[in-house]
Amino acid sequence: MPSGHVYVRHLAPESGPGPRRLPDPAPDATERPAGAAWAPAGMLRPEWAAEADFDIFHLHFGFDACSPEQLAELVDVLRARRKPLVYTVHDLRNPHHADDSTHTAQLDVLVPAADALLTLTPGAAAEIRRRWGREAEVVPHPHVVGFDRMLRAANERTQRADGPFRVGLHVESLRASMDPMRILPTLVDTVRAMPGAVLQVNGHRDVLDYDGARPDTELADYLRAAARAGLLELAVHDVLPEDALWSYLTSLDVSVLPDRFGTHSSWLEACRDLGTTVVAPTCGYHEHQGPVLTYGHDESAFDADSLARALWTAYLDRPSLGTTVPRRRAQRAEVADAHNALYASLLG
């Protein structure tokens, strides 16, 4: 769970039989404020796990709002029913939490209790081994973008080959891991020195509108002043629908990730699907996911020179770091086979 997430959907074979994943139950209305778009996953309620008809409980994410005690209660229910717990460790450091103590306490419940552990990269597996003495099977992140849309993106990229070299920074709703103000001066100065290059910054209204739900005035002031000076193009909007998001990423030559902590990135995978070069920070295990350009950035330091070098490499060399439909199709089959084999072994 959650079964509706694109990552979980793409663990299934593209065609043919596979495991039956139960639909996500409705969240508890008492845990969801009126009008909220998010609520804790219903499958995490111990009372649901105590009554539902399933063979294996496979957890990915969605437990942010659960206390370690609630997760321990869920583990107890699964053990009492002799239901195997599989946990795919996506985040060793939660990108939404400035203070990592709660997430660490949650992992201290889930990782030792799981009957089987998966993760996405060798680096994450090594950290799990170091922190908990557990072995996690490494199964790579499957494609994010649909195969038909990947093919369309390849055609769109060919048709705009003579356009400006476009570097994108997407601040979204500015989750805790992001520090765009730290890197923006280097981005602006570097892209300005590239003939025919454009820096495009996109962000959501809740952060970049002064009357938004949680405005960042310093960031909004900087971006608007830079846009007025012609140093960048600024686009402020609500969360983009999926196809608009894929069109936006396809329009970029480079997407720069501004994170100072984190573990893995589905944004990175979507960029690879769409042929967009990723410039990723050295925090976490982004470079283990697939070919990217990296720059030094974590909670303790930012290496401006390495960011400039990565951008110039992308500009001068135009590396082809994306993937293809045949590769993703073969990978999806391998990912599905790995999960099916694990489930079969747990059910004996």
Automatic annotation (TrEMBL):
It comes from Nocardioides faecalis. Residues 1-34 are annotated as: Disordered. Gene3D superfamilies: Glycogen Phosphorylase B. This is Glycosyltransferase. It comes from the Bacteria.
